[in-house]
């Protein structure tokens, strides 16, 4: 049956776009987000007054919009983003969640975290400096994370006299690099985040540019079809058994839909046990609904009283993931201690946990040239490479190209509990 656009009780699905910023230090990511929030009237007057006061106290002759997102004291002192800052705003056309990610190489892992759930990635480039190693690294990571829409944002055009040749040179260089990656949709926009040109409004300083403003592109980019609405996947997070007389017979399985569309009456298969049943009902908060789809969090009730627990997956009998303990994956290593063959780590895949042995490091990728170093014996901090793992429990996974949720995992250092390498 072909996939259709999901609805809730006849109403269209909420149009929520998640996007992440990426780029080098001082390319203006936080300033850009501040400009988006300011010009779209998404900040309160007292917030703006506080930022203006802080800017004046530092001797600036302009309002430092980066202060709207850089919330940590160390971020404000150093003038850089360290942690991922999430901001929420809406326009009449769409709702947005922004992940303002750090540009410093030391904090690449935070950039990976912010981009891992993004529908769109903004790669900012300083017009004065052009593409840098971090521009390449972040573009590779966004591609590896299968972020389906990329926007090259050439910032600080005011500092190069709004020169069209500067923009075209950077655009052509990045487009050439992107052809080596899996980038299905790429847009290029010249802006000045400080002055506001082409951010929310077009401005008059670049008459040679006839494309959309950044906000117009964000409001109209089509991303609903990026979700997997064919392969039904529901990782069970929690078994709901209310301790009350009114609901003493209630048994629901709580979790977030990772793929496909579930409806009451559907035949389902529970993995890894292989037991089958039908969906008796789907509950959302305090009401029953007619269908559930990504990324909704719901309770699914089954007609049969089966042994289902956290880490199991509910799917369709004729379209189920194949359990596997031998995994090949691209990873970004996130700790100072290098990853080496025979290393043992904890692994978390959807709601399922286990342990993993690094059988082999197949190659390390050079983020500038995309060259594969097959002679490497380890992966260092922030390096990207392909590894082969053996897990203690079967993982119910799909190819990452089909499903970003069931096709990804996190490796965790058991001694420290620190996440080491999302795939």
Reported by name, the CATH topology of the largest domain is Rossmann fold
Number of strands: 23
Main beta sheet strand tally, sense and closure: 8 strands, antiparallel
What portion of residues is helical? 10-25%
Gap between N and C termini, in Å? Answer: 31 Å
Count of helical regions: 7
**Overall morphology:** globular
CATH class of the largest domain: Alpha Beta
SSE order = EEEHHHEEHEHEHEHEEEEEEEEEEEEEEE
The CATH homologous superfamily of the largest domain is called P-loop containing nucleotide triphosphate hydrolases
Fold and architecture overview:
The chain folds into three domains: 7-225, Rossmann fold (3-Layer(aba) Sandwich), CATH 3.40.50.300; 233-315, Elongation Factor Tu (Ef-tu), domain 3, CATH 2.40.30; 323-422, Elongation Factor Tu (Ef-tu), domain 3 (Beta Barrel), CATH 2.40.30. 17% of the residues lie in helices and 32% in strands. The chain is built from seven helices and 23 strands. It has helices at 29-39, 45-57, 73-78, 108-115, 133-144, 164-178, 214-220; strands at 7-8, 11-12, 16-23, 85-90, 95-100, 120-126, 149-155, 185-190, 233-235, 238-240, 252-256, 267-271, 275-284, 287-289, 297-302, 313-315, 323-332, 344-349, 352-365, 372-373, 384-396, 410-412, 419-422. Strands 9, 10, 11, 12, 13, 14, 15 and 16 form an eight-stranded antiparallel beta sheet that branches. Strands 17, 18, 19, 20, 21, 22 and 23 form a seven-stranded antiparallel beta sheet that branches. Helix 6 (164-178) links the parallel strand 7 and strand 8 (185-190). The longest helix is centred in the middle third of the chain and has 15 residues, at 164-178. The relative contact order is 0.11. Residues 1-14 and 71-82 have low confidence and may be disordered.
């Amino acid at each position: 049956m072909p996939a259709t656009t999901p609805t809730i009780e006849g109403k269209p699905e909420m149009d929520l776009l998640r996007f992440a910023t990426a780029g080098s230090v001082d390319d203006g990511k936080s300033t850009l987000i501040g400009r988006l929030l300011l010009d779209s009237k998404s900040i309160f007057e007292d917030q703006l007054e506080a930022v203006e006061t802080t800017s004046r106290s530092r001797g600036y002759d302009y309002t430092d919009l980066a202060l709207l997102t850089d919330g940590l004291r160390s971020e404000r002192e150093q003038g850089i983003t360290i942690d991922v800052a999430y901001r929420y705003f809406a326009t009449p056309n769409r709702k947005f969640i922004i992940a303002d990610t750090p540009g410093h190489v030391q904090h690449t892992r935070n950039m990976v975290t912010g981009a891992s759930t993004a529908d769109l990635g903004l790669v900012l480039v300083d017009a004065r400096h052009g593409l840098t190693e971090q521009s390449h690294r972040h573009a590779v990571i966004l591609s590896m994370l299968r972020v389906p829409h990329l926007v090259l944002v050439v910032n600080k055009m005011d500092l190069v006299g709004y020169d069209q040749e500067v923009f075209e040179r950077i655009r052509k260089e990045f487009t050439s690099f992107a052809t080596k990656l899996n980038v299905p949709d790429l847009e290029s926009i010249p802006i000045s985040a400080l002055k506001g040109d082409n951010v929310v409004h077009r401005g008059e300083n670049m008459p040679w540019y006839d494309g959309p403003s950044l906000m117009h592109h964000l409001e109209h980019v089509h991303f609903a079809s990026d979700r997997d609405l064919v392969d039904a996947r529901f990782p069970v997070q929690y078994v709901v058994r209310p301790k009350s007389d009114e609901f003493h017979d209630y048994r629901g399985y709580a979790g977030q839909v990772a793929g496909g569309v579930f409806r009451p009456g559907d035949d389902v298969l529970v993995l890894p046990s292989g037991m089958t049943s039908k969906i008796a009902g789907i509950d959302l908060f305090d009401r029953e609904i007619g269908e559930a789809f990504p990324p909704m969090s719901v309770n699914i009730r089954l007609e049969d009283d089966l042994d289902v627990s956290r880490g199991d997956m509910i799917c369709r009998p004729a379209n189920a993931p194949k359990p596997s303990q031998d995994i090949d994956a691209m990873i970004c290593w996130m700790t100072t201690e290098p990853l080496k063959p025979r290393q043992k780590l904890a692994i978390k895949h959807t709601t399922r946990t286990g342990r993993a042995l690094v059988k082999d490091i197949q190659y390390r990728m050079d983020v500038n040239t995309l060259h594969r170093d097959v002679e490497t014996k380890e992966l260092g901090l922030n390096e990207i490479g392909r590894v082969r793992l053996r897990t203690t429990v079967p993982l119910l996974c799909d190819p990452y190209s089909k499903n970003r949720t069931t096709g990804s995992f996190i490796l965790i250092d058991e001694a420290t509990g620190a996440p080491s390498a999302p795939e």
